[in-house]
Specification:
Muramoyl-pentapeptide Carboxypeptidase, domain 2; 6 helices; alpha+beta
Length: about 180
């Protein structure tokens, strides 16, 4: 019921709270501190998140960090976030998990579509304006963790990305 209502309207303060949580879990994965966001609107926070994640990912890529370790932390933190959402939204079916992921993505400017076989397509992505292909590949560990946490398992795999020059992102969400 809550998920159905949220398809229609999500209050600004809830969007800000969830984005702030995403900031914290992402910063923790990068072993850094999130920027101060007091007084920022949701759209300003979202732009700051894109800049922050790009900066952190580029730092890791340039400074020779273990990308496998960073990806693992991003995945694990996003998985826990997805599990929390799964519990709070009372998600029990794969269809509800797909609906929740579509909603979460819509809130952050990603047009996510997924069919019953798990094939997905993203025609528009807010972050594609900010990310290089390498940054996108690293940050997508967040997508993979969130999707698995919401669904109670499964795997989100990208086969094509906007940041690689594709006309869209495409892939498969197994387990859905």
């Amino acid at each position: 019921m809550l998920l159905t209502i949220m398809q229609l309207y999500v209050p600004e303060f809830i969007k800000q709270k969830k984005l702030d949580e995403l900031f914290r879990l992402t910063a923790a994965a990068f072993r850094s501190q999130p920027p101060e966001l007091g007084g920022f609107s949701f759209s300003e926070r979202l732009a700051e998140y894109a800049l922050f994640t790009r900066e952190q990912a580029e730092r890791c890529l340039q400074d020779g960090y273990s990308l496998a370790e960073v990806k693992c932390r991003l995945y694990q933190n996003a998985f826990a976030f997805g599990q929390d959402l799964r519990r709070s939204l009372r998600i029990t079916t794969r269809e509800e998990a797909a609906m929740a992921l579509k909603l979460m993505y819509r809130l952050i400017g990603i047009d996510f579509r997924c069919d019953r076989q798990g094939k997905f397509i993203i025609r528009q992505c807010f972050f594609s304006r900010y990310y290089s292909a390498a940054v996108c590949r690293l940050i997508s560990a967040l997508d993979e963790g969130l999707a698995a946490g919401l669904a109670g398992g499964g795997r989100l795999c990208f086969e094509q990305r906007l940041t690689d020059g594709g006309s869209c992102c495409q892939g498969n969400w197994s387990g859905v």
